[in-house]
Write a structure and sequence with these properties.
Length: 124
């Protein structure tokens, strides 16, 4: 059995140690943008989109198929069962584009597509 290496303490960056500031930045580089407050992460934005759309439509979303940050908040694509059928591969699905503001509040939605659950997208 090999001997374990000793644990080395991590060095704090100059920013974390309270040093530096402006002189730490390289010329020509911009500072990274700060994260939004409210729906601060993708997971929170996904939950907010699904929950609020469900409340408006009266139907439970199946999934969030895409999510991307925008200048004003988030945009999500949410899949909803609009008509349940047997077998479930023939159920009618709706795909909704949902816009959220920076706090995660729904500001708009629109159905962009209807399709049967068993339908597979094919490239053209």
């Amino acid at each position: 059995m090999a001997a374990a290496e000793p644990v080395r303490p991590r060095r704090a960056s100059s920013r974390a140690a309270g040093e530096g500031g402006q002189q730490d930045r390289q010329p020509g580089r911009r500072a990274a943008p700060r994260r939004r407050s409210g729906a601060s992460g993708a997971a929170a934005a996904m939950r907010a989109a699904a929950e609020q759309l469900s409340e408006l439509l009266g139907r439970r979303p199946e999934s969030v198929s895409s999510l991307k940050p925008t200048e004003d908040g988030w945009e999500a694509q949410v899949e909803v069962v609009e008509l349940e059928r047997i077998p479930d591969t023939t159920s009618v699905m709706g795909s909704y584009r949902v816009a959220l503001d920076e706090e995660g509040d729904l500001i708009s939605y629109e159905r962009t597509r209807r399709y049967s659950r068993g339908m597979i997208d094919r490239s053209t």
